[in-house]
């Protein structure tokens, strides 16, 4: 007997007299019944929205020539956001890691075969800017997945969706069995830095369906 999907309860299992026999051919002479609890409810995905307004703000670690900081939103003085300045000559792969736990880690992202997308609000001075998102295992950077989204506005906020099931060319595919608890963002990925400033806000680490 198979319990129903996404449910919890008790299964009654009973065996009638004479329903089976042993190796010598002797049939069972007594009936039996037992109850087995089951729980097939899918777990609620864990994660959080990093808003940069937290009482204990996340740590931003730049690499490759990016200088990150938490600043006042240039369009809303009541809001704080991450600012990433991609310095002149910054590497094509430069970016910043967002940490909410020690060792550059965040809460584990509950990715599955069907819950594969994360979102973030971004501000770019140009439309057509490639923004790469990378999630990885904080203890082993080889266990990772990367994907790209592209801005459509110049000088304005927009929400980008990052579908990790569509990994960037040449990078590992999503493996929901792995632990992903580190996240990095790369603005204008693939291009050398030219001292442009980008902003990031409301990084939603609660995965949704692809």
Describe the structure in your own words:
The chain is mostly beta strands. It is built from no helices and 13 strands. The strands form 3 sheets. Strands 3, 5, 6, 8, 11 and 13 form a 6-stranded antiparallel beta sheet that branches. 0% of the residues lie in helices and 50% in strands. β5 and β6 form a beta hairpin. It has 2 domains: 8-39, no CATH class; 49-209, Galactose-binding lectin (Jelly Rolls, Sandwich), CATH 2.60.120.
Keywords:
210 residues; six-stranded antiparallel β-sheet; Jelly Rolls; 2 domains
The count of β-strands is 13
**Shape estimate:** elongated
CATH homolog superfamily of the largest domain = Galactose-binding lectin
State the CATH architecture of the largest domain.
Answer: Sandwich
Mean pLDDT: 90
Radius of gyration: 25 Å
Specify the helix fraction band. under 10%
Terminal CA distance: 32 Å
Largest sheet: 6 strands, antiparallel
Which fold name is given in CATH as the topology of the largest domain? Jelly Rolls
Number of separate structural domains: 2
Q: What is the ordering of alpha helices and beta strands?
A: EEEEEEEEEEEEE
- Strand-pairing-aware structural class: mainly beta
Unreliably modeled segments: none
CATH uppermost class of the largest domain: Mainly Beta
């Amino acid at each position: 007997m198979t319990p129903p999907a996404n449910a919890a309860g008790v299964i009654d299992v009973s065996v009638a007299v004479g329903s089976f026999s042993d190796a010598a051919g002797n049939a069972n002479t007594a009936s039996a019944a037992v109850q087995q609890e089951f729980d097939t409810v899918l777990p609620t995905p864990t994660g959080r929205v990093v808003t940069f307004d937290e009482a204990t703000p996340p740590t931003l670690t730049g690499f490759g020539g990016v200088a990150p900081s938490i600043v006042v939103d240039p369009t809303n003085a009541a809001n704080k956001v991450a600012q990433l300045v991609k310095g002149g000559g910054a590497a094509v792969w430069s970016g910043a890691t967002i940490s909410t736990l020690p060792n550059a880690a965040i809460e584990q992202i509950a990715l599955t075969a069907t819950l594969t997308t994360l979102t973030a609000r971004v501000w770019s001075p140009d439309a057509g800017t490639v923004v790469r998102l990378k999630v990885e295992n904080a203890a082993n950077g080889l266990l990772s997945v990367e994907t790209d989204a592209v801005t459509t506005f110049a000088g304005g906020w927009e929400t980008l969706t990052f579908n990790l099931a569509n990994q960037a060319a040449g990078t590992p595919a999503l493996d929901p069995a792995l632990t992903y608890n580190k996240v990095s963002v790369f603005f204008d990925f693939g291009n050398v830095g030219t001292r442009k400033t980008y902003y990031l806000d409301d990084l939603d680490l609660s995965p949704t369906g692809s």
